[in-house]
Amino acid sequence: MVACKRLNRLIVIVLSWVALSSAAPSVEQDALPKMVFAHFIVGNTRPYNVGDWARDIALASSKGIDAFALNVGRDDYEASRVADAYAAASGTNFKLFMSFDMTSLPCGGGGDAGPLRDYINRYAAHPSQLRFDGKILVSTFGGEYCSFGTGSLNQGWQNAIKNGMPPVHFVPAFFLDPSSFGGYPVMDGAFNWNSAWPQGNYDTNFDSDNNHISHLGGRSYMAAFSPWFFTHYGPDTYNKNFIFRTDDWHFVKRWENLVEHRSSVAFVEALTWNDFGESHYLGPLHGDLSRSDDWTAGYDHQGWLDLLQYYIQAYKTGVYPSVSQDRIFLWSRLSPAGANAPDRVGKPDHWQWTQDNLWAVVFLTTPAEVQLACGAYIQSTTLPAGVGKAQLPLQQDCSVTATILRGGVSTLHFAPKGFDFRTNPRNYNFNAYVAAS
């Protein structure tokens, strides 16, 4: 069921692509608190208990994440897992809020609002419930087709989550042309899900964000961030097999855009903490992996978390933190995009969009030479103090290493275990291998 929901979700994303125009943001939101959330797929927590939630909450909180957006669908165990999450968050500063997965939950009749209202009412007074401007924050994935029996999107959602309810601040991810937002006063803001990745073969930019912001009339804007995207389900399972382009240090460039435009961005939601099937998980590989083992086993992404923490602090404060320790962050695929493999699923759609490069982000206390190597191929870059970027083409069977040198002397040598590029892969795995010194 979980992967089926993810299939429906990806269909919504693909069908919702629209031509996005660039427009200057018109709203200043500096006075609003900056918060960062992580999208959490409750459907992948069937085996979780309160202790599992507590560990995830502690880890996320330690990196500057303020809340989990709890993506809930129709599976019968999800309400119990949500209760466990709220129990685990009790007594901490970490918050939770509902993000209704409308590709799973029905919304055609008036009675379909019942589960949504139950969730909101059940946790309205809970100390771990996230509030914004004194109201309960509620979001969605999809739902732009929901009428709840009224024949109207706006009236349907008004009846479902606002009429006769505690005050709600509603920031849905509706896949609509932003120019239509003025017709939906039930929206207190908008969550721009597709801003997390370029929707074509180009670098990340802020055009989609600007288009949303310019049509919100001062309402809250929630931007998305995601480090990666690859899914590889065959037609005999969930039949989704494609990538989004996350080359050219997409992780860092997306955050640089968010920090630059922070005055117009009320919230950032990281996609995701645990959507393993789409390879954009930031948390540990734990719980129900949603049949993703072929491309997630051995691909721990937690090496990204300290890098995420750095940019979260910059977004919240408007000032990039000083670098107090040399660090190296590395990621890449482990085989060429153009390689052929004995894989019954086949190459993912858009495989031509990605380059065979190692991407490096380096924290330096003082200027240094940074040397990236894979086998006999070595490339050196001189970088200033602070945060710098480097890259290395990957062309042959080799193992990745990175070295920081000052005055010709190595001050940090990093040889991450398992970071081995192979030109003849056994399957098409476009997931990112991530390592941090």
From TrEMBL:
Q: Which CDD domains match?
A: GH71 (cd11577)
Q: Signal sequence: where?
A: 1-23
Pfam families assigned: Glyco_hydro_71
One GO molecular-function annotation for this sequence? glucan endo-1,3-alpha-glucosidase activity
Q: Which UniProt keywords apply?
A: Hydrolase, Signal
Tell me what this protein is called.
Glycoside hydrolase
What is the organism of origin for this protein? Gloeophyllum trabeum (strain ATCC 11539 / FP-39264 / Madison 617) (Brown rot fungus)
